Amino acid sequence: MVEEKERLLEQYFQSAAIASRRIPEPLLEEAVAAGLNRGKRIRRSRAVMRRSAVFVGTIAAAMLLVIGIAFPQAYSPSRLSGLAAKLMDRAEVPDYVEQLAGERGILREALDDGKYQAIERTASYGGYQVTVDGMLTDLNHVVLFYTSSGAGERITPDSPRLFTLGYDPLNAVQFMAGSQQFKGVTEEGGIYHDMIIFDLPLGETLPSEFYLAGRWRNEGGPVPQDQWLEVKIPVKANRLAVLERVIDVNRTLDFDGQKIKVSTVKQDVQQLEITLLADPSNDKRAERMYGLMLYNNRKGGYTAYNLVTMASNGEGWELGYFAPEYQRGDPLILTGKGLETAFEGEKKMVINTATKTLVQAPDSRLKLESIKRSGSFIRIRTAIKTPLQGMAYVARPKSKFKDANGAFYPLPQDGGVHEAWNSRGEWSEYYFDIPASQYVQPLTFDLRDYPGELILQDFKIEIK
Amino acid sequence: MEQTELAAAACRGDEQAFHILVSGQQRRLYGIAYSYLHHEQDALEAVQEAVCRAWIKCGKLKDPGAFIPWLIRILINCCVDEQKRKKRLQPLPDNADIRSNEMISDSKIDLERALDRMKPKYRHVLMLKYYEDMTLTEIARVLDRPEGTVKTWLHQGLEQLRGKMETGGELFHG
Question: Which of A324, A346, B5, B55 has the maximal Cβ count within 10 Å?
């Protein structure tokens, strides 16, 4: 059996071998050069910090000496060391913070402006230790830089939260994005550095002191162990960073009479958030913008940003693009291909799995491709004609369906893959499984997804 | 210059030596990163990150002869960090998930899931053995652990893989 696994492993890693043979040399060279350049920059900044620390320390010592000689009655070591500490505050920025802040963007700007607040508060219990090394905040956004370790294994926070000193939870929401979000740094012995970002809701601000609290979890072990740790964090109100900016756009797009206003672009710690508003006079409900892309047009290039968050409130959408390196003044370009409106009919399909017929569909675009037994499941395959090739148009059922007697049955929830979408020319195919059983026919599936109308119209907005 | 001489020069801060040394390994580094991340851009970023960290820390490397294993160890840490970030991924609304769906084969996803559930140290050993074709001695140098420990991990990793693949549950794909 072990030999079989060895063979499978060798096969499995073949994809990496093929990928490493195919990757063009210039891409590899670029990656190495970019890594080296970033490393050089960090080393340079570290050296400058050290020199500054020595220089400022020397100046402070000299001042101490001069004042001590000239004004012995005014000699106050604590006051002077405070001054030196203040002057030397930039030197307190750890290397990993410099690394996490990157070369460009609002975090880099805040660090370069000297807005880093050293915290250096530690909480520990049962071999787990967390130190909040520092923070950047504007009272609406909080970036906490931490170092953690837990008995030789890396520990990270599981749903951390912020509390007031009276243990009332703050409504701060942790920012989570896609794979490109954080650049945590792992060291030998399970020491880990990373940052946690919180956004407070509109109108709420950070108090002058608060707790970061949560379960810190060892993810490496077979059974994750966790510990509750809390760190008390003071805020220096005289060292607030700029962590949010709003760019007014105010451009209205017209899609066959359906109007959508691109209202603002908000930059915060890690993302650019575009607010789109549907005009109240629209007679169709706008579902989503089709083919929307946001580019950074710096130096005439087109760097696309990844969409990582999406919120809709019926009047419009807020789309968050992961853009930690966006810098004030970089021109942006927003492009799109159209507007999808919501389906207004009855989102329901009725299927007789015994006779393999589609009894009722939301509209004529839906067809039943096949019904087949697949192990202990029945696989129902449908297809919808799409206006453009490659579009994911699916008739996706809700989690329960009912038979002709009104009895409800759940869709499979065993952790397996029981649905998939595939594009075939102008048809969008989709299958889902139901448990194989004798049902009183026909079966009714209420749909959570069914496509509406697509109004195709290319647009491009330049945002400066 | 020999690799060890280059490494010694790199550790003394010779940028050109460091560049020559790392460039000579760039395709290998990419392959290792790809074996963890299965994504071209992510793998390139992991290489970039590893090179950055290596340049920052190479002055502290005590044994220049161990430069390449040390570099690979840094890269593996970068890949583990990247995988962890991916697990934090906040899913987009359902439609977006469907758009990215693809038909995938049973055996690949089965093995991938089994490796994903495995403790990182076992996965590292399996990757270095079956992808990099390293000897136990070489793996021990990369992971900075005794050879006996690595041998045990390899055996346990294969055993775990068997257990995890057998308890993975029935999967269906198109």
Answer: B55
Q: Looking at the complex, report in whole angstroms how far the Cα of residue A389 sits from the nearest Cα belonging to chain B.
A: 12
The answer on B156 and B126 residing in a single domain is: yes
Beta bridge partners of A343: none
Nearest CB to A19 within list B34, B111, B165: B34
CB nearest A422 (choices: B52, B55, B103): B103
Whether residues B158 and A19 touch (CB distance < 8 A) is answered with: no
Backbone φ and ψ for A450, nearest 5 degrees, come out as -155, 135
Short-list A393, A380, A456, CA closest to A427: A393
Ordered per-residue pLDDT tens for chain A, 464 residues:
456 667 777 777 777 888 888 888 888 888 888 888 888 877 776 665 555 555 555 555 555 455 445 554 444 443 444 444 444 445 479 989 988 898 899 999 999 899 999 999 999 988 889 999 999 999 999 999 999 988 777 788 888 999 999 989 999 988 876 443 446 887 777 788 999 999 999 889 999 999 999 888 876 555 667 788 999 999 999 999 999 999 999 999 999 999 999 999 999 999 999 999 999 999 988 888 888 899 998 877 788 888 888 888 778 889 999 899 999 999 999 999 999 999 989 999 999 999 999 999 999 999 999 999 988 999 999 999 988 877 788 999 999 999 999 999 999 988 777 888 887 788 999 999 999 999 999 999 999 889 999 999 999 999 98
Decide if B93 is inside a domain: no
Q: Cβ of B172 and A416 within 8 Å? A: yes
Give the span between the Cα atoms of A329 and A331, in whole angstroms: 6
A348-451 and A98-243 share a CATH fold = yes
Q: Which residues of A touch B18 (CB under 8 A)?
A: 36
CATH of region A348-451 = 2.60.40
User: Domain span at residue B19?
Assistant: 1-88
Inspect the interface and report whether the beta carbons of A220 and B172 lie closer than 8 Å: no
Closest-CA distance of chain A to residue B65, Å:
19
Coil/strand/helix, residue A309: strand
Grouping H, G, I as helix, E, B as strand and the rest as coil, residue B168 is: coil
**Closest in A99, A179, A416 to B85, CB measured:** A179
Rounded CA-CA distance A228/A270 in Å is 27
What CATH number corresponds to the domain at position B22? 1.10.1740.10
From the list B31, B49, B169, the residue facing A35 with the nearest CB is B49
Nearest to A331 by CA among A359, A356, A299, A360: A299
Architecture of the domain defined by A245-342: Sandwich (2.60)
* Spatial separation of the C-alpha atoms in residues A137 and A117, rounded to whole Å: 8
SS3 A443: strand
Under CATH, which number does the domain A98-243 receive? Answer: 2.60.40.1630
Q: Which residue in A166, A145, A157 sits closest to A227, CA to CA?
A: A157
Angle between helices B26-37 and B15-23 (to 10 degrees): 60
Same domain, B113 and B80: no
Does A416 contact B30 at a Cβ distance shorter than 8 Å? no
Query: Token pair of A385, please?
Result: 């004609």
